[in-house]
Amino acid sequence: MSDKPKVAFYWCAACGGCEETVVDLEEKILDVAAAVDIVFWPVALDFKRKDVEALPDGAITATFLNGAIRTNEQEEMAHLLRRKSQLLIAFGACSQLGGIPGLANLWDRRALLATAYLEAPSVVNPAGTTPQASHAHSGSESVTLPVLFDTVKTLAQTVAVDYFVPGCPPTPKILLDAVQKLLNGNLPEKGAVLAPDTALCEECPRKDTRPEKLAVKEWKRPHEILIDPDQCLLTQGLLCLGSATRGGCEAQCTKGNMPCSGCFGPTSRVRDFGAKALSALASIIDADDEAEIGKILAQIPDPVGTLYRYSLAASPLRRKKLEGPQNA
Amino acid sequence: MPEEKFEPKIVAFFCNWCTYMAADSAGISRMKYAPNARVVRLMCSGRLDPQFVLEAFAKGADGVLIGGCHPGDCHYQEGNYKTLRRVNLLKRVLREMGIEEDRFRLEWISAAEADRLRTTMNDMVEKVRALGPLRLATAEAVGEEVAVR
After folding, report:
1. Scanning every residue of chain A, which has its alpha carbon at the shortest distance from the alpha carbon of B79?
2. What domains lie within chain A, and their CATH numbers?
3. DSSP for A50-98?
């Protein structure tokens, strides 16, 4: 093997969009492939877990791991790749903050399996079969399946993480910047998020139409109005989380006439994204009367799903309070 | 081992101009009330970042009490209105996260209302005592939960 830096990509609880970002590098992927040796990338190359296990510890220069950690198999892979890699990079919102799978922390394993395998209207399962951790075939060894956890974890809640690349998914530009920083050895302090440390509003083309004092009397959903393509989305009563969200995405959503949903997560000064977004949105309500405030805020139908769309697993509360022995 | 009696841990955020003054005045008047609160003084209830409330619960508080000036009396004109708006939404978030309503409370208590502070504190401590310890799954507990599988 050559002495080029070795890079690995791996996929845990995620939708595959982060892998798509790598493909979206288009012809630039050839430059990346020329500069590094890709030693593990299950979605595209035929390497197996045993190939990673055969590498000496620390042999991989950098592993980009996308997806949250919600099964024991994913946890094992996170530990294995941590051991084999000099740098472990949490790639994308799920890995950094729990992402969309992190919203499963509003339920527990039993409820999730019951919905998926027993209760969903499209399910036909008269025997009530649900996934088991292991199953013994007659006359052969038992086979095992990964076990789903009650609580979805971020990568950093599982193993030590060196850098974070935000986004759902990260943009090709953000990925390329990260790879270039890596190749040049031009990396910031450990633990940093490899994206600008300013709010999205800074790069939003609607920025100048945002008034000094915002005041919202009514929240609207994007399908309910004709959205002005130039005006600050908050002034139009749309739930735009840009003011609480890290920039670096080139404002793709607001340029596409959609409010920011917060996938780049918080800036470095914020501990909890959802609480900060809550603070920003609630304080611009244009009402002082308690009943009227309640009426306006009731127009936000799903506060946790809206404010913590990508970051519930990373929040201080992490999950809905579990009933049962875990809390006893 | 005999079970220790549960004493609720309350984290209280009081504004400097009204509720903290009320607490001071309750002390000077030698009023007796439940000693369960750890009071954090803020210049204004509007300084209360919702992150503080979540951190308090995550780090072991059984209840969080916020005290500010009555509407219209804010030293900074409108800080308490901002609190009122944020608390409304925060209450909905906490409810969805399984934290009972009586564990999180906002009260307007002026500097002259030491007695109201006393009754509020006693009432909250009793309600939280009835609910029992919050016992959120902490980071460590989530790890253990995973390890025992």
Report:
1. A283
2. 6-100+150-184 (3.40.50.700), 200-307 (no CATH)
3. HHHHHSPTT-EEEEEEESBEEEHHHHHHHHHHHHHEEEEEEESHHHHH-
Apex A297 CA angle, A169 and A235, nearest 5: 65
Distance from CA of A148 to the nearest CA of B (A): 9
CATH of domain B10-147: 3.40.50
**Hey, of B55, B89, B99, B148, which one would you mutate to test binding to chain A, going by the most A CBs within 10 A of its CB?**
B89
User: From the list B58, B78, B141, which residue is nearest A326 (CB)?
Assistant: B141
Give the tens place of pLDDT for each residue, A99-158.
999 999 999 999 999 999 999 999 999 999 999 888 887 777 888 899 999 999 999 999
3-state per-residue secondary structure call for A240-257:
CCHHHCECCCCCHHHHCC
| pLDDT given for residue B129 in this prediction | 97
**What chain B residue is nearest to A297 in terms of C-alpha separation?**
B89
pLDDT one-digit tens code per residue, B52-76: 999 999 999 999 999 999 999 999 9
Q: Are A326 and B137 within 8 A, CB to CB?
A: yes
The pTM of the full predicted model, rounded to 2 decimals, is: 0.93
ipTM: 0.92
Please give the residue of chain A at the shortest CA–CA distance from B146: A149
